[in-house]
Design goal:
The chain is mainly beta. 14% of the residues lie in helices and 41% in strands. The strands form two sheets. It has a 14-stranded antiparallel barrel with strand order 1-5-6-8-9-10-11-13-14-15-16-17-18-19. The protein has a two-stranded antiparallel ribbon with strand order 2-3. The chain is elongated.
Length: 505
């Protein structure tokens, strides 16, 4: 029997390691709403109610009593995302020369992300050693920020209004020849040397990293060995050291290299990988028909993304935030259990996520400074990308509410349903950078079932629907930028189906 267990576990581990390199996605910000098909069938509710070996990814104490078994599942995740950047509010009247009569205006760029299907694996193994001791090992994909736009939304929107200087040494269609747009305004309105303007525009707009497409990809794998101990039939505790691996790549962000402290490490550097560590502790108590659970996951300290040290704040730092939560479960009848969780994801502790993106004045001032002063990259703004206070995504802490029900219809069939809610983790005025990570869904419904094939084998199927939501904002310039504006919009909805197999030894 031991050899069978090891073969199953080895196969599951290998499969997970191979598949986890694909982009994972999530719904509470960039966290999954739950781990394993049973847990997700109840919308992620599980701090006080463990059902299989993936329980340790929610509360390690919930692993107690699971027995000796293995669970392996695959989720097919289908997020539909749309991003838009509208710079039509940036309109510049060309200098009054007889050979130039047109005005230049920014454009609107809108695209659906081409990345819509993802395979997300999960594997868990647990062994009951007797005398209250239980160990386990789980592999889960945690999060993802994956977008793939066939149109570079940023450059399509902003480039048309830039124009050119009188030297005509930098053609930039659809700009007319001769002094035009912001370039012409800077030259003839503020006396900036046209050669200087051309050099700056070459830096901004002939960059091979601008590319025809735009996107990012973040994937995370969490490896959680677990030890749980039951003091008696009422109280248990658990601990899981966490080993994390994440990968990231970005492409098409060349426009922002001029606003970075490390322009060579902003975009188009392929996949970069990082390892990190943290821990999770938990408690679960049974009090008659009620059970109560507490769980805390520490901040997971990750290696920096060196290849993207000029994009993320603190020179490429991208730690995984800490979480904590409380749960309760009530066995309403011998067949029906109702559970609810409240948890907190501390996105605000991670500077690369929490730092605000630029205001309208900061963004427009950065462009104007680069074009007019020819400053070195990263010196055009006080908080360049990659610095400790560099522009970020403006994410706040998120509170997640979950409720689910588990109904044991008979010895062969069990049915589940649940609801999960978490507000968008950023305010509307952070929409510009979050075109890359449109994590805007709030309401999720789940439903599923388990079929017990025999006393050892069972199959579980779960469906999740996250309803469409959008965030948009118009950025209005003030003072010297009064009258200039641009807008950004993020939109998303999600569907997912997960199938898992469990075997009890």
């Amino acid at each position: 029997m031991t050899s069978i267990r090891m073969r199953l576990l080895s196969s599951a581990v290998i499969a997970t390691a191979l598949l986890a390199t694909s982009a994972a996605q999530a719904t509470n910000g960039y966290f999954k709403i739950g781990y394993g098909a049973k847990n997700r069938g109840m919308a992620g509710t599980g701090i006080a109610y463990g059902q299989d070996t993936l329980a340790s990814a929610v509360n390690p104490a919930a692993l107690a009593g699971i027995g000796t078994r293995i669970d392996a599942g695959m989720e097919i995740f289908n997020p539909k995302r749309k991003g838009a950047v509208d710079a039509r509010g940036l309109s510049v009247t060309n200098p009054p020369f007889p050979f130039v009569t047109t005005d230049l205006q920014g454009a609107k760029a809108s695209r659906n992300s081409g990345a819509e299907e993802f395979a997300i694996p999960s594997v868990g193994f647990a062994n009951d050693w007797g005398n209250g001791w239980q160990t386990g090992l789980a592999f889960v994909a945690n999060g993802g920020l994956n977008t793939r736009y066939s149109n570079n939304l940023y450059t399509t929107a902003f480039t048309p209004v830039i124009g050119q200087s009188s030297s005509n040494s930098f053609p930039s269609p659809p700009s007319p020849s001769g002094p035009s747009g912001f370039a012409g305004l800077l030259e003839f309105g503020f006396g900036v040397d046209p050669n200087q303007i051309d050099a700056a525009m070459g830096q901004l707009f002939t960059n091979e990293n601008l590319g025809p497409s735009l996107g990012v990809n973040l994937a995370q794998l969490l490896i959680t060995p677990t030890v749980a101990y039951s003091f008696n039939d009422k109280h248990s505790i658990g601990f899981s050291p966490i080993i994390a691996r994440q990968s990231f790549r970005a492409y098409g962000l060349g426009l922002f290299q001029a606003f970075s402290s490390d322009p060579d490490n902003v975009t188009n550097n392929g996949n970069d990988y990082a390892w990190g560590y943290g821990g999770r502790i938990g408690y679960m108590g049974n009090f008659g028909d009620f059970s109560v659970g507490l769980a805390y996951t520490s901040r997971i300290y990750m290696q920096e993304f060196d290849d993207y040290a000029g994009l993320f704040a603190e020179q490429g730092d991208f730690d995984i935030p800490s979480t904590y939560g409380i749960g309760v479960a009530y066995r309403a009848t011998p067949k029906l259990t109702i559970a609810a969780d409240v948890s907190r994801i501390n996105y605000g502790d991670i500077d690369s996520l929490a730092n605000d993106g630029p205001t309208a004045n900061e963004f427009l001032s950065a462009f104007a400074t680069v074009l007019s002063n020819g400053t070195a990259p990263g010196q055009s703004i006080s908080n360049p990308l990659g610095s400790n206070d560099g522009w970020g995504f403006g994410w706040d802490d998120a509170t997640v509410f979950k409720i689910g029900a588990n109904y044991e219809y008979n010895k062969n069939w069990t049915f589940r349903a649940g609801y999960n809610y978490s507000e968008v983790p950023y305010d509307d005025d952070q929409a510009l950078f979050n075109v890359l990570a449109p994590a805007v869904v709030e309401h999720h419904l789940t439903a599923g079932f388990t079929y017990n094939q025999n006393e050892h084998s069972q199959w579980t199927v779960t469906y999740m629907r996250a309803f469409n939501n959008d965030v948009d904002n118009t950025y209005e310039g003030t003072n010297e930028f009064a009258g200039f504006s641009y807008a950004a919009e993020n939109e998303m909805d999600q569907n997912a189906i997960e199938i898992s197999y469990g075997y009890t030894f």
